[in-house]
Automatic annotation (TrEMBL):
Single GO term (MF): DNA binding
Protein name, entry field: DNA-binding transcriptional regulator, MerR family
Presence of the UniProt keyword Cell inner membrane in the record: no
Source species of the chain: Lentibacillus halodurans
Source species, domain of life: Bacteria
CDD domains given in the database record: HTH_TipAL-Mta
PROSITE patterns: HTH_MERR_2
Keywords assigned by UniProt, alphabetized: Activator, DNA-binding, Transcription, Transcription regulation
InterPro entries on file: DNA-bd_dom_put_sf, MerR-type_HTH_dom, MerR_fam, TipA-like_antibiotic-bd, TipAS_dom
Lineage, top ranks: Bacteria, Bacillati, Bacillota, Bacilli, Bacillales
Cited SMART domains: HTH_MERR
Length: 246
């Protein structure tokens, strides 16, 4: 399908689809010699996912991170989104009841307590983003944190010192090629150490490296050891994961 056909099918603008292409969120499988974008069935499935997440208030950058995560599973995403919609429907039903009661209260037919007047309102942090973060973002990181939190203070200090030394060693070689023998040997030590305190598959390890760059909190902390270390680690971790799978 051409971009105009997709826009008409979905009910969004051609400009929106162009923007998704420009930022790398949804790049059509084909582009003709004349420059026309051609969207495949797979592209439409990805667009559906994007719009579902957008419906729940996710920023485009976060959506891009989620659907490009090595651990992202489309069927699992649909199950989670279904759960989100059911919860949203229940909340809306509750608010409709509140409106109906308020109408009767305004007419003087019933009396509403103060708490009843605000039933269904929820201004808390988006719970769907938290669930998505746990499933497709840094679930492995959280698992490691849970293990660390169970350690004694001395054990935690030892872990912190080990992390510190590994980061320093990696920072010292961050100007080398990520696929060099030296870089790969150092990043292997990082992979092995992480698996002492947690459980990281090669895909999760690669995804973790990507998060070092995508999540500025990680980038800022890692780059304290040397500017550009987060990017170096991401690239080296990706090479290590891809090579180890062969």
């Amino acid at each position: 399908m051409k971009v105009k056909e997709v826009a008409e099918l979905v009910g969004i603008s051609v400009r929106t689809l162009h923007h998704y292409d420009d930022i790398g969120l949804l790049k059509p499988e084909q582009t003709t010699e004349s420059g026309y974008r051609i969207y495949s069935e797979k592209d439409l499935e990805t667009l559906q996912q994007i719009l579902f997440f957008k419906k729940f208030g996710f920023p485009l950058k976060k959506i891009k991170d989620i659907i490009n995560s090595p651990s992202f599973d489309r069927e699992e995403a649909l199950q989670v989104q279904r759960k989100m919609l059911l919860e949203e429907r229940a909340r809306l039903d509750n608010m409709i009841v509140t409106i109906d009661k308020t109408i009767l209260h305004t007419k003087g037919e019933i009396h509403m307590g103060d708490k009843e007047k605000f039933a269904g309102f929820d201004f808390s942090k988006n719970p769907y983003e938290q669930e998505a973060r746990e499933r497709w973002g840094d679930r492995a990181v959280d698992g490691s944190n849970a293990i660390i939190n169970k350690m004694s203070q001395d054990e935690q200090n030892a872990v912190g010192e080990a992390f510190d030394q590994i980061y320093k060693d990696l920072a010292a070689i961050r100007h080398k090629a990520p696929d060099s023998d030296e870089a790969q040997e150092a990043i292997k030590l990082w992979y092995n150490y992480l698996n002492k305190i947690g459980s990281y598959s090669l895909e999760a390890f690669k995804g973790l490296g990507q998060m070092y760059v995508d999540d500025k909190r990680f980038t800022n902390n890692i780059d304290k050891y040397g500017q550009g270390l987060a990017v170096f680690m991401r690239d080296a971790m990706a090479v290590y994961a891809d090579r180890s799978k062969k």
